[in-house]
């Protein structure tokens, strides 16, 4: 092949082949936005507006408060928060100290949180009031010393905050959804930040090569581990995102944060890229089509990152209400395959563009995307981003490339590729190859003009509702049940969530497990999206000659039944 980057011809006008990799930390982007757009609304939370000047001041005070609590460069600080202004402030405050943000899903169970908290060893955790007691209950297994509880209603507009106090059933339900009493030992985030002095100028900030974020993932093996992402990794991916959409206007866009910011997809689009260009970010604590459309009346979106199910549900609500989303010029979908009919409906409703992107936690996350133009190609994940190289390698020997047109494991190289897993050098060596190439675990084919299509999945993870679910984690849990001798977990197609989690279990000797009881037992111990939607009882599981359960055959058997 004369040119090893045939995909460059697919780039729309204005998209560069290479980006200038940032030489400043993420906090410099916030400082620049504060200086350039001080009076522009940075955050909108259900109608409560925070300007960039106010955001900068809050970050400075929060950094001062954390510094007073002893947080120093290199320390890990756990965030267990939904999308809210306090999340954004805490994220940048931790980074300002040269400390490391560790994002956690607030829907996790105690055991799931304890495992991750123990692994990274954070002494300070900034958590939603509703999960503060859960984090408190992990202290006997973790290094957590200080819990700072965030009161979500404190960030609401005054009238909405007062309405929650009304003695009405709806107000009580909303209040219960948003808050709960925190343990007596927990500190109040709001009081800490309000009383704190801004961090002194003499306290050094981070360097571009420092670790900014530990993001937990199953990687390519299914065992949760912390992916180490530096300021350079995350800033580079934000710069790549901006380059991919040359029509974005600094200081002129409205991003919708419906993706959870405890997920790397939400971090990069809604916490780093948005701030880099001085955008207004509309924060929603959870995805709800009605809530999105109510916000759109107040502050119409121009850039809408999401997952396919969001576009389908929101599109249906737009039609139902006769609402207007014509302001949404750009949308990028990730986490699962984007159906062509979803694209067609969304673009008809908005008049804008919806493209599919591809990435992984270990790549900050986006590496490949369809062009943000009418040249996008349905069914393909697109072409490599600027400054990103790809190879298709032999699945058994990643040093050998497959012939052109043949399927191979997708390998990626670029400034967004992580530096390794936290305290796991062997796992790092398994996926991070010489030259900075990372093994994705996905099998792809490339067309002559450089478009990539995923055709298989080596790592066998399940994607449901945009979240990664790792079969081995659920199988290990099910085997702990006294009525279960063995288990295999697979993903089956679902109309509403990409895939649904299905478990096939072999009963323990003399036991007769009840599928409904097993599902309820699993739901008590797993985040809701991980819990099996179906449990099938079987006498045995298909195995290889060496005894390994053949998940693919399990899946094929279920599909054929």
From TrEMBL:
<dbReference type="Pfam" id="PF00501">
    <property type="entry name" value="AMP-binding"/>
</dbReference>
<dbReference type="InterPro" id="IPR020845">
    <property type="entry name" value="AMP-binding_CS"/>
</dbReference>
<keyword id="KW-0436">Ligase</keyword>
<feature type="domain" description="AMP-dependent synthetase/ligase">
    <location>
        <begin position="31"/>
        <end position="422"/>
    </location>
</feature>
<dbReference type="InterPro" id="IPR042099">
    <property type="entry name" value="ANL_N_sf"/>
</dbReference>
<dbReference type="InterPro" id="IPR000873">
    <property type="entry name" value="AMP-dep_synth/lig_dom"/>
</dbReference>
<protein>
    <submittedName>
        <fullName>Long-chain acyl-CoA synthetase</fullName>
        <ecNumber>6.2.1.3</ecNumber>
    </submittedName>
</protein>
<feature type="domain" description="AMP-binding enzyme C-terminal">
    <location>
        <begin position="473"/>
        <end position="548"/>
    </location>
</feature>
<dbReference type="InterPro" id="IPR025110">
    <property type="entry name" value="AMP-bd_C"/>
</dbReference>
<dbReference type="Pfam" id="PF13193">
    <property type="entry name" value="AMP-binding_C"/>
</dbReference>
<dbReference type="GO" id="GO:0004467">
    <property type="term" value="F:long-chain fatty acid-CoA ligase activity"/>
</dbReference>
<dbReference type="InterPro" id="IPR050237">
    <property type="entry name" value="ATP-dep_AMP-bd_enzyme"/>
</dbReference>
<dbReference type="InterPro" id="IPR045851">
    <property type="entry name" value="AMP-bd_C_sf"/>
</dbReference>
């Amino acid at each position: 092949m004369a040119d090893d980057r045939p995909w460059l011809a697919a780039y729309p006008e204005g998209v560069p082949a290479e980006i200038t990799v940032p030489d400043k930390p993420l906090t410099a982007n916030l400082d620049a936005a504060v200086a350039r757009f001080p009076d522009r609304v940075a955050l909108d939370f259900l109608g409560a507006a925070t300007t960039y000047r106010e955001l900068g001041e809050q970050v400075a005070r929060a950094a001062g408060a954390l510094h007073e609590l002893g947080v120093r460069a290199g320390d890990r600080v756990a965030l267990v928060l939904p999308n809210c202004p306090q999340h954004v402030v805490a994220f940048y405050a931790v980074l300002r100290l040269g400390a490391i943000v560790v994002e956690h899903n607030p829907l996790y169970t105690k055991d799931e949180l304890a495992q991750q908290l123990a692994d990274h060893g954070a002494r300070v955790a900034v958590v939603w009031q509703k999960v503060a007691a859960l984090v408190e209950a992990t202290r006997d297994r973790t290094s957590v010393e200080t819990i700072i509880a965030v009161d979500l209603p404190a960030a609401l507009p005054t009238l909405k905050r007062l309405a929650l106090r009304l003695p009405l059933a709806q107000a009580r339900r909303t209040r219960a959804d948003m808050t709960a009493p925190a343990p007596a030992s927990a500190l109040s985030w709001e009081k800490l930040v309000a009383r704190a002095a801004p961090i002194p100028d003499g306290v050094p900030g981070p360097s571009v090569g420092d670790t900014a974020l530990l993001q937990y993932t199953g990687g390519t093996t299914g065992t949760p581990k912390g992916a180490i992402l530096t300021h350079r990794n995350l800033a580079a991916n934000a710069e790549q995102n901006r380059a991919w959409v040359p029509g974005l206007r600094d200081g002129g866009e409205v991003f919708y944060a419906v993706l959870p910011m405890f997920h790397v997809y939400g971090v990069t689009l809604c916490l780093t890229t948005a701030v880099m260009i001085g955008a207004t970010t509309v924060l929603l604590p959870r995805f709800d089509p009605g809530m999105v459309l109510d916000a759109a009346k107040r502050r119409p979106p121009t850039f809408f990152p999401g997952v396919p199910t969001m576009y389908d549900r929101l599109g249906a609500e737009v039609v139902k209400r006769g609402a207007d989303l014509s302001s949404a010029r750009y949308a990028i979908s990730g986490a699962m395959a984007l159906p062509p009919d979803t694209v067609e409906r969304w673009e008809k409703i908005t008049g804008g563009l919806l493209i599919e992107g591809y990435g992984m936690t270990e790549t900050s996350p986006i590496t490949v995307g369809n062009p943000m133009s009418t040249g996008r190609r349905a069914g393909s994940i697109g072409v490599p981003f600027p400054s990103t190289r790809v190879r298709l390698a032999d699945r058994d020997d990643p040093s050998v490339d497959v012939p052109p047109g043949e399927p191979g494991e997708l390998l990626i190289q670029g400034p967004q590729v992580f530096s390794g897993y936290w305290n796991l050098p062997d796992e790092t060596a398994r996926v991070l190859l010489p030259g900075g190439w990372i093994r994705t675990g996905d099998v792809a084919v490339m067309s002559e003009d450089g478009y990539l299509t995923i055709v298989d999945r080596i790592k066998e993870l399940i994607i449901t509702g945009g979240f990664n679910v790792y079969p081995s984690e659920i199988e290990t849990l099910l085997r702990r049940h006294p009525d279960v001798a063995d288990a295999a977990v697979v993903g089956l197609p679902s109309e509403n969530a990409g895939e649904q989690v299905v478990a096939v279990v072999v009963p323990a000797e003399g036991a007769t497990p009840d599928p409904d009881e097993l599902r309820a037992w699993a739901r008590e111990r797993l985040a809701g999206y991980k819990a099996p939607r179906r449990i099938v009882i079987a006498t045995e599981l298909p195995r290889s000659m060496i005894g390994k359960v053949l998940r693919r055959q399990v899946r094929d058997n279920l599909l054929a039944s």
